[in-house]
Amino acid sequence: MARIVILTGAGLSAESGLGTFRDKDGLWTKYDLQDVATPEGFARNPELVTGFYNARRANLLDAAPNAAHEALARLEAGLPGEVLIVTQNIDNLHERAGSKAVWHMHGELMRALCHACGARWDAPREMRTSDACPACGKAATRPDVVWFGEYPYHMEEIWDALRAAELFVAIGTSGQVYPAAAFVQDASRAGAETLELNLERSEVSHDFDEARQGPATELVPAWVEEMLAR
Ligand code: APR
């Protein structure tokens, strides 16, 4: 089991040019999440939803990992087997920076899911709802992302990892979306030390043993250097 569990959110990828959700100019100030991030929204207007994620995918293909993603990959390389990243992000910037142990609790933008048979495959650059599933042949393609009202991925393993962790760190997440927002309490109850790294204080800062404020590209490399020097 990993000794250090790191929860990441949209703030980690903000300096790579990917928008956050709830900041000023965040995605949820421009789009109604009920339209583009719920099963009901998809049922009402699948083209709108695939178009929204096609635009996110195009942004991602133009973006690159930043110094914070790179520092987390260095941490894992320097402490083999001790670091687990649980990310709410659907981008692939952790993997592109070199992190290996990454669980995507909200799914992945670069993957497609068949809502008829449950098959998964690599998403095309431009997804269409008329795309046929490679397994069952039905035109039932959707992005492999977890929408509001759906159950996040890997939850049982995540709770096990939180119970076993010595240190829990949350980076770039507003602490407004459950179950991730409660991970600090889960880890803390099980005896882990807890640290928050975020641009500003979040809704849940008071639950952490320590909370540091600043941009991820500054806070995360500095923290990683501390950890590797311990
Ligand atoms: N460095 C560090 N933190 C930052 C930076 C930065 N450069 N820029 C923004 N932040 C912080 C903001 O202060 C905010 O607290 O990142 C947080 C981003 O919060 P949200 O936009 O709410 O993103 P997140 O917490 O990842 O959202 C959770 O909500 O809509 C869903 O499924 C979506 O996974 C997402 C989930």
Can you describe what's shown?
The chain has ten helices and nine strands. The chain has 230 residues and is an alpha/beta fold. It folds into two domains: 1-18 and 65-106 and 152-230, TPP-binding domain (Rossmann fold, 3-Layer(aba) Sandwich); 19-62 and 110-145, SIR2/SIRT2 'Small Domain' (2-Layer Sandwich). The strands form two sheets. It has a six-stranded parallel beta sheet, with helices on both faces. Strands 5-4-6 form a three-stranded antiparallel beta sheet, covered by helices on one side. Helix 6 (67-78) runs parallel beside helix 10 and helix 8 (155-164) packs across helix 9 (183-189). The chain is globular. Adenosine-5-diphosphoribose binds at residues 9-11, 14-15, 20-23, 26, 88, 106, 172-174, 176-177, 198-200, 202, 215-216.
